[in-house]
């Protein structure tokens, strides 16, 4: 049974959604503010976190940031009444995997949770997926990126996005193809998340000037490796 940490200060929504998630087969722990949510996360293990943004004591963005310091892999979904694009981008920069604005359909949330947990399942046994990317060594299975002996641990989304780009290196990869392979859908919020993760990959690969991730606006991306 997947365990979900649900942090929401609205009592009516909190009780309703916790009951709904439990009825769907999840073991749901509900906390009413960000500070309580962080304390529970430090003590217990969860498969996924659902965080409200506007909360007393510690808001969802701050909570997400602290959760990411403890666990870089656990999926995080934001639930919020705020739909401004800057807020969406900020959430993804802190490491969110998805974003739903209130009011939302609980069935849609359930389907998004299922899609995320499916992507997080251990990968099936397959041949080694190790790639030379310029001066870097990328291990997709281990989700690591090595440069001059220094190893950086990647998140699952960073690793999957980099894998799509490197297996299509020097070729234009369509935006919708990337979104479907890495995010499982090509909606507005997934597209915003992809742009954030592209920026993260550019920073991770900045030590080799022969590597570029080019953006064909509105069409897709190309990983250009000049050596």
Overview of this protein structure:
The chain is an alpha/beta fold. 42% of the residues lie in helices and 24% in strands.
Distance between the termini: 47 Å
**Average residue pLDDT:** 88
Q: Biggest sheet: strands, sense, closure?
A: 5 strands, parallel
- How many domains, as an integer? 2
**Biggest β-sheet: strands ordered side by side in the sheet:** 2-1-3-4-5
According to CATH, the fold-level topology of the largest domain is Rossmann fold
Radius of gyration over all CA atoms, rounded: 18 Å
Return the CATH architecture of the largest domain: 3-Layer(aba) Sandwich
Q: Class of the largest domain, according to the CATH hierarchy?
A: Alpha Beta
The named CATH superfamily of the largest domain = Response regulator
Instruction: Report the principal-axis shape.
Output: elongated
Number of helices: 8
Q: H/E order of the elements?
A: EHEHEHEHEHEEEEHEHHEE
- The count of β-strands is 12
| Contiguous uncertain segments of 5+ residues | none
Query: Approximately how much beta-strand content do the residues carry?
Result: 15-25%
Fraction of helical residues: 40-55%
Sheet/helix structural class: alpha/beta
What is shown here, in short?
The chain is an alpha/beta fold.
Keywords:
24% strand, Rossmann fold, 2 domains, alpha/beta, Arc Repressor Mutant, subunit A, 4-stranded antiparallel β-sheet, 227 residues
